[in-house]
Design goal:
Number of strands: 6
CATH class: Alpha Beta
Bound molecules: farnesyl diphosphate
Strand order of the largest sheet: 3-4-2-1-5-6
Helix content: 40-55%
Strand content: 5-15%
CATH superfamily: Decaprenyl diphosphate synthase-like
Structural class: alpha/beta
Number of domains: 1
Distance between the termini: 48 Å
Length: 244
């Protein structure tokens, strides 16, 4: 099992987001069921946490199940639900040792009770940990998040708690799922696909994007370092021009 080393590197960025894509193709290439790919993908997720800690990254958000993924065969959906419970039980002691706080972003109400209960346990037992925040985007959709935020805003206006004239981008953020989490600096998508697929639409407005050909279960430290090196060379201007 990899361990985060004591000698952490200086952080190049504070928030990394990853679309864990390519599990199905990885399994098919090996003549395995798609579910085996997801299983390997879950192990890789813990490796990613260790890689991030070693590099001083403070937040990692991963896309584990989208609001569109319910359209997959029932058995695959059910396996991904159980995989979260498996992941939590397998790694909970190590996550405690490493100081990993687990948080969720998405619509919890629609999840099976066994998953909701595990989410509650995972969040409440890890709340005070400080080394890394692992944010699982689970039953998450970027458009859905924006619609739900808008509904919360309308309700706040109707209750007389918010004046519409005071609504700006900063205020809007307060109604997102995790308002305290900074925007991702870099979004990595492995597997060769080059799109966001409804991931972090609001938060990713100025994120750098990096696409890798490798399938998620084959993602390595080398893949991450290539992405980080590329990120280090990018010129992030946030819509402004170069300062003299
Ligand atoms: C996309 O690959 C991946 C998913 C829809 C599921 C991702 C889930 C995991 C990596 C494990 C989940 C971990 C936890 C802790 C719940 P794909 O199936 O679309 O791959 P393909 O494009 O090759 O078919």
């Amino acid at each position: 099992m990899p361990k985060a080393s004591d000698g952490h590197q200086e952080a190049l960025l504070q928030h990394l987001a990853v679309i864990m894509d390519g599990n199905g193709r990885w399994a098919q290439k090996r003549g395995l069921a798609r579910t085996a790919g997801h299983r390997y993908g879950a192990e890789k997720l813990y490796d990613l946490c260790v890689m991030c800690i070693k590099r001083g990254i403070k937040y990692v958000t991963v896309f584990a199940f989208s609001t569109e993924n319910w359209q997959r065969p029932e058995a695959e959906v059910s396996q991904i639900m159980d995989l979260f419970i498996y992941f939590f039980n397998k790694y909970k002691d190590e996550m405690k040792k490493e100081g990993i706080r687990l948080r969720f972003s998405g619509v919890k109400d629609e999840l099976p009770d066994r998953v909701k209960d595990t989410i509650t346990e995972a969040e409440s037992t890890s709340e005070t940990r400080k080394t890394l925040q692992l944010i699982l985007a689970f039953n998450y959709g970027g458009r859905r998040e924006i619609v739900e935020s808008s509904k919360k805003i309308i309700a706040a206006v109707q209750r007389g708690e918010l004046d519409p004239d005071d609504l700006d981008e900063e205020k809007f953020r307060d109604y997102l799922y995790l308002p305290d989490v900074p925007d991702p600096d870099l979004i990595i998508r492995p597997s060769g696909e080059q799109r966001l697929s409804n991931f972090l639409l609001w938060q990713g407005a100025y994120s750098e994007l990096y696409f890798a050909k490798v399938l998620w279960p084959d993602f390595t430290e080398n893949t991450l370092d290539k992405a980080l090196n590329e990120f280090a060379k990018r010129d992030r201007r946030f819509g402004a021009i170069e300062k003299e």
